[in-house]
């Protein structure tokens, strides 16, 4: 059982309705195949990330358009997988099954999302209704920002984290984004004052601590460890994986900050990899809201509960820090591309492990931990990647 | 016809009693007669033991704020007239946590741990929504 990512491509996150979904998808698929150094007809399966809020695109992908458009003559089968923000994670899991069973040597995993051509009112409705209960939450004017603001408020109450410390998370995430040509915030860092003085959306979340919806596309080519080594190209090798489910409805969760899910999923992943949390050179946390950048570190055991916000405030997790976290920027530092955020997380992890992260490159990055989550953090899916197989 | 245009709860067969309760200004908590679980939100079967032998107990109407957030923008157009909206999770002494709005309050004065009480607002002939307000 093994999985390696050998080819990647990404289009910069933007709001640009002139970029059509199929143009974007074709570009990233072709570039990922070229980056892997294989022929298009070597791709034997296409497992697509479900594009949220884009029903027609989801249907097109589910019914086999991708290999047809790209002329992938070796393709044996296709599938679209949907678990919200963890869709990409499930694509990797199914790809592993195809590869392990010798059904496919190379699997293409593409994603595209265009939200800039969807009316704002429809997007608010989608994000208010998709992850929230229509009977017990929706009638109360709940938004994603409101639900996550509520949890952030309680997190600050329980940990003593200050507004300045919480805002520092966004400063660091935007710090990564400012150095990243793929971020919508490239060249646009923010200060603590910028965050704290931005409009209050849902207490305690200011506008800059909330997600900015944008368009994006990414793709990767995966294969086995053995084939990746035969090809002799730099790759990211999956070394371990662990998952936990937290529940669909925020108010019903016993673990509101997902600490247990972060802890147990990371412990399983690290045990499979034969590594410890201290061996990680980079931690990539997809939580979409800043408090998760703190509670994940507490769950992983990097620090005790209540200590993480101060660590972020010291700048240790941002660019140049001694505990680099989330160089991808998370949704608040890169732009939220629906189910594409997790795709971008994996792509950035591959860049770091291949030493291709430019100004954001983490020194001697050989082991990275990445956690993705779907819905309103209904789950924590933690994977360990290395620059070499075990 | 009601002129209420905000989203209404989509009532399910097993939650009808809850909404009948609110119509009569009663806050009901679903209970399992077999394992004594207190269930929120109401289900078809007990999530603990799968029993369908379920009943209802009337709540006192008192609760404590576990967490809250005051929303100033970003809601759907129909909710804009209500801004700022105080979204809250409240703990009932009957053993459940539910999501609601805190109303009839100064949003800046809301605190975690604050004592609140249920207040019913009839929004249509069929639906009366339970909200909470600070205990005076």
Explain what the structure shows.
The complex is a heterodimer of chains A (390) and B (136). By secondary structure, chain A is of the alpha/beta class. Chain A contains 14 helices and eleven strands. Chain A has a nine-stranded mixed β-sheet, with helices on both faces. In chain A, strands 5-6 form a two-stranded antiparallel sheet. In chain A, strand 5 (200-202) and strand 6 (205-206) form a beta hairpin. In chain A, helix 7 (163-178) packs across helix 11 and helix 10 crosses helix 11. Chain B is mainly β. Chain B has one domain (13-134). The longest helix of chain B has 8 residues, at 16-23. Helix content of chain B is 6%, strand content 36%. In chain B, a hairpin with a 5-residue loop joins strand 1 and strand 2 (38-39). Chain A binds chain B through residues 121, 124-125, 128, 133-143, 145-147, 149-154, 157, 199-205, 210, 249, 251-252, 256, and chain B through 6-12, 15, 40-41, 66-77, 79, 82, 85, 87-89, 97-101, 112, 129.
